[in-house]
TrEMBL record:
Taxonomy, superkingdom: Archaea
InterPro entries: EmrE-like, Small_drug/metabolite_transptr, Small_multidrug_res
The protein's name in its UniProt record: Small multidrug resistance pump
Cellular component annotations (GO), alphabetically ordered: plasma membrane
Organism: Haloarcula vallismortis (Halobacterium vallismortis)
Membrane-crossing segments per the record: 33-51, 58-79, 85-104
Cell compartment(s), UniProt: Cell membrane
Membrane topology note: Multi-pass membrane protein
Amino acid sequence: MHPYVLLGGAILSELFGTTALKLSDGFSQPMPSIGVALGYGAAFYLLSLTLEELPIGVVYATWAALGIIGVAGIGVVVFDEPVDLAGLFGIGLIVGGVYCINVVSQMSAH
């Protein structure tokens, strides 16, 4: 399977696990707590498969950055958390960084 598809699955699994973590209320809610374990377990498994084919710096930077952006979006949409101009600017910098690492830089496996 294409490593970026696996990385996408790892990111989605992490987003699921992190959302479940918010809903677990300090692990006092059983179903979301199970979702945390399943989400993060799947995320790390898929991330390990991705690392078999892509450089660790590229993988981790992409995984972390898109996770941050995704969680921020979930916070706004699902949990009604605020976002401001400075936050949007920061997210733009993260997107620019991921673009540079994956497209412009020689770090990635083109």
